[in-house]
Amino acid sequence: MSANNPFSSAFELQRTMIDQSRRAAETTLDAQRTAVETWFDAAESTKSFQESGVSLSKTAIQAYLDGLSSVLPEESVDELEAAVDEQFEAVDEIHAEAWESFLESVEEADAAYDELTETQRELLAESFDAVEQIQADAESSAEEVAESAEELAESA
Q: Where is the region Disordered (predicted)?
């Protein structure tokens, strides 16, 4: 565009704003993705923390039963230990199944989120491309008008 065109700086400002808006939108999508990944990672940490808690409880109860074995008949303690072991096996099984189901759901949600984010990125790119094209067309039209006005002024 000609330096004499009064619209040059306005169109340059528009291009800068469009570019900054595009980058801001992309950065926002990246930040959202990071937040989702952090949440999913926290779920894995929670699973590990819960498993440690169950293991600690089991160890504490086994230590208690070991202490009881010095004051109670061995048969009674053996029965208690068997019942406790059975209950902890059930807890471990339920825990594993629940977390497996939850983590499968998380993976499905993650895949759906990735698909949604990709669709958003495509839509943003198409939208910004369209805005840039409209802006370029307007700039071209303004340049033609400015050139026509210059020619008219010179011929007058």
A: 134-156
- Residues 113 and 36 sit within 8 Å (Cβ to Cβ): yes
Mean pLDDT over each residue of the chain, to the nearest integer: 89
Domain boundaries, the chain: 47-132
CA 84, distance to chain mean position in Å, is 41
Q: Give residue 33's identity as a one-letter amino acid code.
A: R
Phi, then psi, of 23 in degrees rounded to 5: -65, -40
Looking up tokens 């072991």, which residue turns up? Answer: 85
Answer whether residue 54 shows pLDDT above 70. yes
Angle at 15 between CA 147 and CA 150, to 5 degrees: 10
Q: Are 4 and 149 in contact (CB under 8 A)?
A: no
Residue 4 backbone phi and psi in degrees, to 5: -80, -15
Whether the predicted model's global pTM rises above the 0.70 cut: no
Q: 24 or 147: which carries more pLDDT confidence? A: 24
- 70 SS3 class: coil
Q: Where are the beta strands (DSSP E) in the chain?
A: none
Q: How confident is the model at residue 148 (pLDDT cuts 50, 70, 90)?
A: confident
Distance CA 60, CA 113 (A): 42
